[in-house]
Amino acid sequence: MTAHERLPGKYDLRVADYAMLAEAGAFGDRRTELIDGDVIVTTPEFRPHAFLRDELHFRLRTRLEGLSSDLFATSGSVALSETTMPQPDIVLTSEPRGEGPIPVLSVALLVEVSSTTVDRDLGLKQRLYAAAGIPEYWIVDLPAATIRQFWSPADGAYGEQREVAFGGDLSAATIPGLIVATTGL
Questions:
Q1: How many Å apart are CA 131 and CA 100, to the nearest integer?
Q2: Is-contact 109 74, C-beta < 8 A?
Q3: What is the C-alpha to C-alpha distance for residues 27 and 88, in angstroms, rounded to an integer?
Q4: Nearest residue to 35 (alpha-carbon basis) of 81, 1, 74, 103
Q5: Is the pLDDT of residue 5 over 80?
Q6: May I ask the CATH architecture of the domain 45-181?
Q7: To pair with 129 at 20 to 30 A between CA atoms, which of 11, 87, 136, 154?
C-alpha cells in the first residue's frame, strides 16, 4: 500500500519518531513494534512461549561462546528501514552494545517464537526480514513443534528453507558450527 492509498488521517511513523515516543513513555509497559510506519501492540507472552524463547536463547548463547564466535545472542529492536523496527524474540548480532536499536547490518540470524502468530511470522515478518537482507530467519512453531529455517535472501524472499521437528539437532545454514539441540523445547 502506498502513502497515497492510506486512509485519511493516518500518520506513518518513522523509526526516529517511534523511538522518541517510546522513550517518552507513550506506550507504557506494553511491548510494541513499528511495522511499515504502524505501531503494533504485541500479544501477551505466556509460559510456553517464554520458556522456549529463554531456553533457545541460552542454548544459542552457550554454543556461540563455545565456538568463540563474534556473534552474541540477545533480544531487542532491529531497525530494518526508516519505517520498520520489529522486536524479534532472539537476535544474533555482532553489535550487542550501543545506543538505539540493533543495526540491521550486524544481524546474522533472527528468531521468532510463534504460539499464535505463525501466519504473520511466515508472511509479513518473513518478507520484511528477507527484504532487509537478514541472512537467516527461524520461526519456532510451538503448535507444530517444529523450527522452520529460511536463508539465502534475494528480491524480498528467502531462496532456501527447511523444517526441523523438535527433538533433533538444528544446524544453522549460514553460521558454521552453530548446532543446537531441540530436545526438551
A1: 21
A2: no
A3: 18
A4: 81
A5: no
A6: Alpha-Beta Complex (3.90)
A7: 11
